[in-house]
Design brief:
The complex is a heterodimer of chains A (251) and B (75). Chain A has one domain. Chain A is mostly helical and 251 residues long. In chain A, 66% of the residues lie in helices and 0% in strands. With 75 residues, chain B is mostly helical. Chain B has a single domain, classed as F1FO ATP Synthase (Up-down Bundle), CATH 1.20.20. In chain B, 89% of the residues lie in helices and 0% in strands. Classes of the chains: A mainly alpha (251), B mainly alpha (75). Chains A and B meet through helix 1, helix 3, helix 6 and helix 7 of A and helix 1 and helix 3 of B.
Chain lengths: 251, 75
Amino acid sequence: MADEAHSEGGLSFHPLDQFEVTRLFGEGPIAWYTLTNVTAWMALAVICIVLLLVVGTSKRAVVPGRTQSVAEMAYGFVYTMVEDVTGKDAVKYFPYIFTLFIFILISNFLGLLPMSFTTTSHVAVTAVLALGVFVFVTVLGFVKNGPAFLKLFWVSSAPLPLRPVLAIIEVVSYFVRPVSHSIRLAGNVMAGHAVLKVFAGFAQVGFLIAPFAILGVVAIYGLEVLVAFIQAYVFTILTCVYLKDALHPSH
Amino acid sequence: MEGELAHIGAGIAGLGTGIAALGVGNVAGNFLAGALRNPSAAAGQTATLFIGIAFAEALGIFSFLVALLLMFATG
């Protein structure tokens, strides 16, 4: 459908092609153990994270050098976030939350390199992250509070006849949390990259349009760098908020 | 015919992105108004500001996603 419209002599670019999952070697169907571009870029993200955090801080200098300073800034940033939002007793879950933050941040930044692939632009990847958060938070809520965890859905500040209706609404909105959590990250990153491709495609329209298209690409690229950081931050801080709800359920 | 309907649908979904911009501006504007009245308390609420902006923007992104899917992924 879209192909026929495009081959009529209009712009012929396909901005969603960059999100296709392709094999790295060989032919054939893609199974769960196939090496694809997704696995390659995820492995690269892990290598970058290890290089930044482990190798960067290996000197353990009291006056940090550049890499150690960046690693310490990231650590301190997420640590203060967990402490402020979730409370001091949640600091023992800090490794999980920091893993989420740094993985999403480095994946988003790696996707900004030209000709690269953004793993977090796929709902499959972000849905697993969000589902992990959902299962972790729910199980933790029941383990720490027992059946009193269900107090989260019983709004005691509302009049009594209204409470069952509100309870149903609260339960539904609790289960919608991983959906919005995952689609927010995937949608933001995918939309940003698709817009980049569309603006770049405008450059083939004409000789005079091309400089403005390139300027548009530069501006959107700046916005994408900001969005990459903000989306990692928002994912992490929402995880902290859900964790706080689980550890201290109240309404 | 289906291609044209898909394009029209994508255009209508683009309106949703514009409405989300109103929502995000609302959040940021209210924060700014409050922050200029009470600057010392504003620094502690920047986290809430970003969460509010993210929630409002997420729905705009959902609408943009619908537009993109209609345009390029044949619905």
